[in-house]
Specification:
The complex is a heterodimer. Chain A is of the alpha+beta class. In chain A, 63% of the residues lie in helices and 7% in strands. Chain A has 13 helices and 4 strands. Chain A has helices spanning 2-5, 23-60, 68-79, 81-100, 103-106, 113-147, 158-161, 165-186, 189-211, 246-254, 268-278, 293-299, 314-342, and strands spanning 219-221, 231-239, 242-244, 302-309. Chain A has a 4-stranded antiparallel sheet. Chain A starts with a helix and ends with a helix. Chain B folds into 2 domains: 2-214, 3-Layer(aba) Sandwich (Rossmann fold), CATH 3.40.50; 219-287, Alpha-Beta Plaits (2-Layer Sandwich). In chain B, the strands form 3 sheets. Chain B has a 6-stranded mixed sheet, with helices on both faces. The longest helix of chain B is centred in the middle third of the chain and has 18 residues, at 161-178. Classes of the chains: A alpha+beta, B alpha/beta. At the A-B interface, helix 1, helix 2 and helix 5 of A face helix 2, strand 5, helix 3, helix 4 and helix 6 of B.
């Protein structure tokens, strides 16, 4: 048949050519352009929305701190950006090659599997990181005025802290890196996607709950009035430098008919005290007359010690978190390359 | 030069040895057939040779002492895995471009001309091609790389008879014109008889027979004679496999070059490749490492 009649002499193209890294660029783009385009399209659309609301806010000339609930709902949605990118872009990169068996083709070409892995992961990691950083910039620009200087919300609070450009880029990169490791370790696309979501969420929760507060030594104040946007770690009562139990404080307060109900309400006491100056038009508390509970406690040598991170630490914290996330991501992607090299067919 | 050389090669997956104590040397300039039942370790051996797997025990080298998976080995060996896995969502043209970008050498003109003659449209997605076309595309990509060694794992398993013929014709042309050495695995014996001139027989994870087909055929024959006398000869001769049919016994024996006269009352027949392979496959323990392997190894040392 026809196969026998073919000229089998090597053509002029058959001579060896160098194999620079950039020859992988087309391949990576061709194979992952849909995923990258999807990320850019979604983030772009949301960015446009953020831009419009940001513009409106600036033209109206006022900043609505009352947007708190709306802010937190949209912020929660934005929290899903990194893990979704990790699951939909990061996890399939290696898992799909293994699941479909095409790694037997790809990894036996002259380029070599280690170089192939690096040349696939690196540009994609860079692309999603840049996309996330750009989105974070729009977020900071649009929501920044509502977050920074807001007496109620702290810019360090978990709801929005990781949505600024540095941290969003870092969390997206680490999600991508987790996805790539999950892909090569699990070798199935869908399980790798789930593993990515779970692992990323675990890391994010642990970071927000335990790690972030230790980036810098917290400040301690005995002031009842905290600076705007302070991120409160803990509050406790003390008398002459020794801790005092809540019941002891209650006993003192009972003399003037006020109470501290539970540890969770500690923060409300100074708030009530400070509001009596600003919002004095509202009727002052009836029973105890003119006695200010905070002043009364102070008079008895009882102070409230608040451990907090000031809002001014937003950017140092951003860079600390971005830094270790970058280091962790590089480690994870190195692990992915190592697993590719170890992977036996 | 040996295109594939293994010494004490073993590969374990979990607690199962897929390949064990495998020692062989396939010289270049051959179409070598790796034959054995499913689970004999053929794919494992090929994966080790192309660098997709690393040995648990022993050593393997390719193209005259190169480490599998090293840049030189990857450059010189083109591998078509079982079922010819290709990126299903890429067009044929994109697949060509991808292969060209991934290799130091790729003869695009040759590949395009071949696909044109096969009637495989460049715009079609690889996943939309028929099984035979996918296999032909994978073979074209492999040959376009102008390899020194072409490794084909079960290339004909998914092909109909016509596609098998075309596929092997292409491989043979490459072999004849470019001097490409070919190593292919298969459990389809009849297809191999026409094309293979070197046989490696594997069973239960080890090599049973290895040698040039002509030598193997010359050093084996079938003796047919009275069943009653079969037991006597079985002790004197290197009987690979004995088959009794009524009063007649058929003994497949290894002569090892000796020209013992045929005993009276017996007839000697030359053996076909298929008969030979089947006899050994039926007796996996009987002749685990016959002469040809040892002979090959002594040739290797200089």
């Amino acid at each position: 048949m026809t196969a026998l009649t073919l000229p089998a002499q090597p053509g002029h193209e058959a001579s060896p050519r160098p194999m620079p890294w950039r020859r992988m660029a087309w391949i990576t783009w061709r194979q992952h352009r849909l995923a990258v385009a999807g990320v850019v399209a979604v983030l772009g659309a949301v960015s446009v929305y953020l831009y419009i609301t940001g513009e409106q806010l600036r033209h109206q000339g006022f900043i609505s701190y009352g947007a708190g609930p709306v802010l937190s709902i949209t912020a929660v949605l934005f929290q899903a950006i990194p893990p979704l990118i990790g699951a939909f872009v990061g996890a399939p990169v290696l898992a799909r090659e293994l699941e479909t068996g095409t790694f037997r083709f790809t990894w036996t070409q002259g380029f070599g599997r280690a170089r192939w892995t690096v040349a696939t992961l690196a540009p994609l990691a860079l692309a999603v990181t840049i996309a996330a950083a750009a989105f974070g910039l729009v977020f900071s620009w649009s929501y920044g005025p509502q977050i920074i200087g807001n007496p109620v919300l702290s810019p360090l609070a978990a709801t929005t802290f990781d949505l600024h450009e540095v941290t969003l880029a870092g969390w997206t990169l680490v999600a991508f890196a987790i996805g790539s490791v999950a892909g090569i370790a699990i070798r199935r696309v869908v399980p790798a996607m789930f593993a990515t979501l779970v692992a990323w969420s675990g890391l994010a929760v642990l970071t927000g709950a335990f790690l972030r507060r230790h980036y810098q030594a917290p400040l301690v104040t005995s002031n009842f009035t905290l600076p705007d946007g302070a991120w409160i770690e803990s509050q406790r009562w003390a008398q002459d430098g020794h801790p005092v139990s809540l019941s002891a404080v209650d006993q003192v307060l009972q003399k003037i008919g006020a109470t501290v109900a539970a540890p969770g309400h500690l923060g409300q006491l100074p708030a009530a005290g400070s509001q009596s100056a600003a919002g004095s038009q509202s009727a002052p508390a009836p029973g105890p007359g003119s006695v200010n509970p905070a002043q009364y406690l102070l008079h008895h040598g009882i102070t409230q010690l608040t451990t907090y991170q000031p809002a001014s630490r937003l950017w140092p914290f951003q860079w600390i978190e971005g830094g270790w996330l970058l280091a962790l991501s590089l480690l994870l992607m190195a692990a992915a390359v190592w697993l590719v090299l170890r992977r036996a067919a | 030069m040996n295109v594939i050389e293994a010494a004490g090669l073993g590969k374990r997956y979990g607690s199962t040895w897929a390949l064990r104590e495998c020692t062989l040397a396939i010289p270049d300039g051959h179409v070598a057939a790796l034959v054995g039942p499913n689970g004999a370790g053929k794919t494992t051996l090929l994966n080790l040779a192309v660098g997709l797997a690393t040995p648990t025990a022993g050593t393997v080298s390719v193209l005259g002492g190169t480490r599998p998976g090293s840049p030189a080995a990857l450059d010189g060996i083109a591998f078509v895995a079982q079922d010819a896995p290709l990126h299903a969502n890429l067009s044929v043209a994109d697949t060509l471009h991808l292969t060209r970008n991934l290799n130091r050498r790729f003869d695009r003109g040759y590949a395009r001309a071949r696909l044109d003659e096969l009637g495989i449209p460049l715009t079609r997605k690889a996943g939309k091609l028929s099984g035979g076309q996918q296999a032909q595309l994978a073979l074209t990509l492999a040959l376009g790389r102008r390899p020194r060694l072409l490794v084909l794992d079960e290339p004909m398993a998914s092909l109909d008879p016509l596609a098998r013929h075309d596929f092997m014709a292409t491989a043979m042309t490459a072999m004849a014109d470019d001097g490409v050495s070919v190593v292919l695995s298969s459990h389809v014996l009849t297809e191999l008889e026409r094309v293979a001139d070197y046989l490696v027989l594997m069973s239960r994870g080890s090599v049973q027979v290895a040698g040039e087909v002509d030598d193997l055929l010359a050093s084996h024959r079938v003796l047919t004679g009275p069943a009653a006398e079969a037991g006597r000869y079985a002790e004197r001769l290197a009987v690979v496999h004995a088959r009794r049919g009524g009063a007649q016994a058929h003994l497949l024996i290894r002569t090892n070059g000796s020209t013992d006269p045929v005993p009276p009352g017996w007839e000697a027949h030359p053996v076909s490749l298929e008969e030979l392979a089947l006899a050994y496959l039926r007796e996996p323990g009987a002749a685990s490492l016959p002469g040809p392997v040892r002979a090959e190894r002594t040739e290797v040392s200089p």
